[in-house]
Design brief:
This protein is mainly α. It is built from 14 helices and two strands. The longest helix is centred in the last third of the chain and has 34 residues.
Length: about 350
């Protein structure tokens, strides 16, 4: 059962690339592209001469430029010093950047009320909205690229495109959660203070994660809607994948942060490529992937059992209406267990371990 959307046609990449406006914009990079696609060394050298000439001209312009670069260096050093000072006070997360005047004038609604849980959620949401605008823009552009690539991959798939949205939900949740880091990892330098807040540990753990879940879930939902528009089809399985998104995303983010509390490390920009950090991240990712795979396997198993226990003459829609809630409940159970485990890990967390 499909709900047809307005037909916007399939984009012709060749026609778009040959547009006169794009051709004019691409003129400066044509020599560089021609150098890399040259058939032999002689042609590559000939094509690369304009690039080499441009580099030499720019070098001479910079060398002869009558400017006092010391002032620029001092200004740059001052900006770096301010960022380091903010990092000491606010941590090194994506929401530790400066607040713009435009964002400071905008109010952030109390979506969860003015209870202690709502106050924690509002604090994190306000920090994300007012400080992490560039990070959100980059994440949105990354998601658009991913949706476009998925659309090109699925353009010849004539069946239900819900499987593609399922991939978007799983891999998008994992990737964006690790990229944005609006969770406990950016609160690592304030966890000693946060643990003293008047909230039960599991509720505090959940309140600190909900803004990340909300942001990532919104991005993925927008990406799924855009994918449906590009495919021209709104299928039931697409809606089913979006129904599973909140519980899967909460389970993954909670599991990720439980591992962080058990084996904490201060997140330092630029340290992701260090060899020992790569090894640690790989081992922890493997452990988390095993748990997520187990949760998904149990969810699929519950759906299969619920599907098989029904009468043989039951139609597909009614079988799915029973099997889908069974799978959803298993993922919800995983998320609840992860949140409770996170609350216990937060109580046992010792901030002094990060100073060793």
């Amino acid at each position: 059962m499909f709900v047809p959307l307005p037909d916007i046609g399939r984009p012709d990449i060749t026609a778009i690339a040959s547009h006169p406006l794009l051709q004019r914009i691409a003129v400066p990079v044509e020599p560089l592209v021609a150098t890399f696609v040259a058939e032999d060394t002689r042609e590559a050298l000939l094509r690369g001469l304009p690039c080499l000439a441009a580099v030499l001209v720019l070098f001479e312009l910079v060398r002869r430029w009558p400017a006092d670069w010391r002032e620029v260096a001092i200004a740059t050093s001052s900006r770096v010093g301010k960022r380091l000072d903010r990092a000491r006070r606010l941590g090194t997360g994506a929401s530790s950047t400066a607040i713009s005047k435009w964002a400071a004038r905008r109010s952030v609604p109390w979506l969860l009320g003015r209870s202690p849980t709502g106050a924690v959620f509002w604090r994190k949401s306000a920090s994300i909205f007012r400080r992490a605008r560039i990070t959100l823009v980059v994440a949105g552009l990354t998601l658009l690229v991913g949706v476009g690539g998925l659309r090109l991959y699925a353009r010849d798939f004539e069946g239900d495109p819900g499987w593609a949205v399922g991939l978007l939900v799983v891999f998008g949740s994992i990737y964006l959660s690790g990229t944005l880091r609006f969770d406990l990892r950016e609160e690592v330098d304030r966890l000693e203070q946060i643990k003293s807040w008047p909230l039960r540990s599991s509720r505090l753990f959940l309140a600190l994660l909900l803004p990340q879940v909300a942001v990532v879930g919104t991005f993925i939902s927008i990406g799924a809607a855009l994918f449906a528009i590009l495919m021209g089809t709104l299928s039931p399985s697409l809606l089913l994948a979006l129904a599973f998104l909140p519980v899967f995303l909460l389970g993954w983010v909670a599991t990720d942060n439980v591992f962080f509390l058990l084996w904490p490390v201060r997140v330092v920009p630029g340290a992701d490529g260090v060899l020992q950090d790569v090894g640690r991240a790989s081992v922890l990712f493997l452990c988390r992937a095993v748990l997520v795979g187990l949760a998904l396997a149990l969810s699929i198993g519950a759906a299969y059992v619920a599907w098989s226990l029904q009468a043989p003459d039951t139609d597909t829609f009614r079988r799915a209406a029973v099997a889908a809630p069974a799978a959803w409940f298993v993922l919800l159970l995983w998320a609840v267990l992860a949140v409770r485990s996170g609350g216990k890990a937060l109580v046992r967390f010792d901030p002094s371990r990060l100073d060793v």
